[in-house]
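[Discussion] Sanity-checking designs against the backbone

I'm trying to build intuition for which residues belong where. Below is a structure token string of 332 positions. I'd appreciate it if someone posts a full sequence so I can compare it with mine line by line.
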């Protein structure tokens, strides 16, 4: 490609990223990528975790330059062909020759692990400027070559974290759990992935977030683009996915005031939140109706005050010792 075409392509891609091109044109580009990306990656083994994650990352890398949901004006078909051809070739060559080796190396390389105990929260700042707030009983791993790798990835082994990702259009940021992959460019969002909660939840405060789940043969995209005010909840037992409009600011308020936002939680789930925040064993008695869901906020105060608030709001009774909390049904 000569210098004139190269400059032309750079100019148009910049316009695309800066919200200066038409929805019709964007749809045309996205359709092209969807068709050619599938064809270009069919030789990757579908049951290999690394290859499946690269499928998503390659698609994201290519779509970085045409980012979705842009508002634009009509341009000649000629530059679209130049852009798509160039990006596909460069993306495949770069990722499959470099990133596949990098990801294999990352599996074997040392990672830095951050862990918060029950009753504790912690904020960490990564080398790229990304800020992560970790809620109680959370474990996050960062690859030792995070700063120099082709893509930015962290591993949320368990827990809840709020991410304020530093934007870098050349290096997507992803959060991997055992069977979930959440990918962004630069945005802020909350992820909850406590094993006992039996959900994987993503709540978006700003920007756009893509979420995929590992299936038996391939990755299932649960959402191509969650936006501000949307919450995706994937139920690990049933495989059901829900996307709702919610108050995502309240969901992530724990990072500043350590409150428990019980929006649609059962009493067992509320008990688990209390257990993590106050480092106490919680038992929910068999007679408690665990099908009922509650909508309330428990401010971070001393445990006795919190339990009094919970009892008034829900009608439950409780027994509290130094080492254990038992939540009982209401006394008739």
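Best answer:
Here's mine. Compare freely.
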């Amino acid at each position: 490609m000569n210098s004139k075409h190269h400059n032309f392509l750079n100019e148009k891609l910049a316009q695309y990223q800066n919200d200066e091109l038409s929805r019709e044109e964007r749809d045309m580009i996205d359709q092209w990528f969807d068709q050619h990306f599938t064809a270009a990656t069919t030789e990757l083994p579908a049951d290999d975790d690394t290859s499946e994650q690269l499928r998503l990352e390659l698609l994201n890398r290519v779509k970085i330059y045409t980012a979705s949901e842009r508002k634009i004006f009509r341009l000649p078909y000629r530059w679209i062909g130049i852009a798509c051809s160039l990006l596909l070739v460069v993306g495949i060559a770069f990722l499959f020759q470099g990133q596949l080796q990098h990801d294999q190396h990352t599996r074997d390389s040392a990672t830095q692990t951050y862990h918060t105990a029950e009753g504790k929260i912690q904020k960490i700042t990564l080398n790229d400027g990304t800020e992560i707030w970790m809620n109680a009983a959370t474990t996050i791993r960062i690859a030792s070559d995070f700063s120099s790798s082709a893509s930015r990835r962290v591993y949320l082994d368990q827990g809840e974290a709020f991410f304020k990702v530093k934007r870098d259009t050349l290096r997507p940021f992803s959060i991997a759990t055992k069977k979930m992959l959440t990918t962004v460019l630069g945005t802020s969002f909350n992820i909850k992935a406590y094993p006992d909660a039996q959900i994987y939840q993503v709540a978006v405060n700003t920007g756009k977030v893509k979420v995929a789940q590992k299936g038996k043969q391939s990755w299932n995209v649960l959402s191509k683009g969650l936006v501000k005010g949307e919450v995706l909840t994937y139920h690990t037992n049933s495989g059901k996915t829900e996307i709702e409009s919610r108050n995502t600011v309240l969901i992530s308020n724990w990072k500043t005031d350590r409150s428990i936002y019980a929006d649609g939680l059962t009493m067992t789930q509320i008990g688990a939140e209390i257990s993590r925040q106050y480092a106490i064993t919680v038992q929910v008695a068999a007679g408690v109706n665990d099908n009922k869901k509650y909508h309330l906020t428990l401010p971070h105060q001393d445990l006795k005050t919190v339990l009094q608030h919970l009892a008034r709001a829900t009608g439950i009774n409780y027994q509290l010792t130094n080492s254990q909390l038992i939540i009982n049904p209401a006394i008739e």
